[in-house]
Amino acid sequence: RSEMPAAANLGRESVQLTSISHSREELPSPRARNSDSAAMAMAQNGRFSDCASPKQSTVRKKTRARSRAFSTGSSSDSGSGAEYSEGEGEVRSRVQSNSRGFSDFCVRTISRAEFGRREIEIAEQEMPGMQALKRRAEGDRPLAGARVVACTHITAQSAVLVETLVVLGAEVRWCACNIFSTQNEVAAAIAENNIPVFGWKGESEEDFWWCIDQCMSRPSWVPNCILDDGGDATHLMLKKYPHIFDQLKGIVEESVTGVHRLYQLSKAGKLNIPAINVNDSVTKAKFDNLYCAKESVIDSLKRTTDIMFGGKQVVVCGYGEVGKGVCQALKSLGSIVFITEIDPICALQACMDGFKVVKLSEKVREIDLLVTCTGNKNVVTREHLDRLKNGCIVCNMGHSTSEIDVHSLKTPELTWEKVRSQVDHVIWPDGRRITLLAEGRLLNLSCSSVPSFVISITSTTQALALIELLNAPPGRYKSDVYLLPKKMDEYVAALHLAAFDAHLTELTDEQTTYLGIPKTGPFKPNYYRY
């Protein structure tokens, strides 16, 4: 790999990037590249050197009918939302404008904007990194000229990110990556702020793809970046607008599902632009994935099922960072937790953390709760679902909708009953039933919320990744998937330490020489596993 030049206007310090162009299943040892990181340099050039100062069930007849219809679903969080739908195309056909006459948006109702603004203000108080980045960079407008298609969860926390990008100079068109996670009042508040936004809670399959398309198909506006969560915006642009896709400056992707798709595209030679893998950055994997799951899974299950966790037998599929967070939360409330794993390293970690590693088939008849956290496909099959005991709760904490084979449950012999929002009973002919949450989609963002502080860490990382892509000189990034430099991860972490009144110890000159590292970092090599 050759040396890559410095970004002229954003700093000179050299850092290492890791480029990976193989599928994740065949990942070799990382190949380091030397580069001057434009966004990272912002943390070093004086502007950002300090840390921040302190988000009607149906009537029963002899033969029970299904309480609602389904669409076919997709490989991402984009399936049917019939329980919320006002009729095909009703929201889309409604003519709305905000108080200033701006109408380039499609939300459930603009009248909820004031309430949504209060939601965003609450989130801002718990997002110190985003606030610090906004204060320090708005004068420089490092995203001037950026035209970003943002396909993420439309929540108060993501609204803070989107509005920060706008303050930093970007033009953003925003759509939802999940049909159930949109906060309608937040979407209204963003529209009131003259930012194009397309999404509402309970979109249909057609609505979902229409909303993403509205962020790409404006004749007078051509995007040059994608901020994606799950890969749906990337998928649609590559399929429908390949001429635009090939001209993008890059993609920033934050989910396991989306990153996996990028590696597949790269291996197949179809990724003709650079992409930054935020999901595997330290600040995303070790904080968002772990702590967000840990703090939100209990709230989601309580809101939807009123379950008591003490003494319940639970199987958690997957012991990655999300699985670890879920297991810690459930174990702390007295649940008896079993793990399924394919990876011997993760399985060994589970064993040494005090969990029994089993095959799902061994425990499927005994468990009270089944949670998937793998990002894989058909982890829970119809065969498993047929054997679950009466009343078992089934849900998914992974991003992908394919972990639980929900499609196999849409058959004539099974009855679906709506219990409450995001809660369905699926009833077998013998009367046995399971409780399915959010139709197998992402539990926490569909059924409750997520902690704003943790989202601040990920959002700051996303913003810096966009700054890097937009300010890097031509040729620095090839058609490949890149990991964030360690120095940028450390900077994002430092921005959030002041909220805890944390004080870092500084290395002495002698210690610096002994360790062979710079006094200001990076403090760990790229291969270090936290």
Describe the protein.
The protein has about 525 residues and is α/β, with parallel strands linked by helices. The protein is built from 19 helices and 17 strands. Strands 2-1-17-8-7-6-3-4-5 form a nine-stranded mixed beta sheet, sandwiched between helices. Strands 11-10-9-12-13-16-15-14 form an eight-stranded mixed beta sheet, with helices on one face. The relative contact order is 0.15. The model is unreliable at about 1-40 and about 45-90 (pLDDT under 50).
Describe the structure using short key phrases.
530 residues; alpha/beta; 9-stranded mixed beta sheet; 8-stranded mixed beta sheet
Write the layout of secondary structure elements.
Layout: E1 14-20, E2 31-36, H1 38-41, H2 90-93, H3 113-125, H4 128-137, E3 147-152, H5 156-167, E4 171-176, H6 184-192, E5 197-198, H7 205-214, E6 225-228, H8 232-240, H9 242-245, E7 250-253, H10 256-267, E8 275-277, H11 282-305, E9 313-317, H12 321-332, E10 336-340, H13 344-352, E11 356-357, H14 360-363, E12 369-372, H15 382-387, E13 393-396, E14 415-420, E15 423-427, E16 433-437, H16 443-447, H17 452-471, E17 481-483, H18 486-497, H19 509-515
Parallel strand pairs: 3-4, 3-6, 4-5, 6-7, 7-8, 8-17, 9-10, 9-12, 10-11, 12-13, 13-16
Antiparallel strand pairs: 1-2, 1-17, 14-15, 15-16
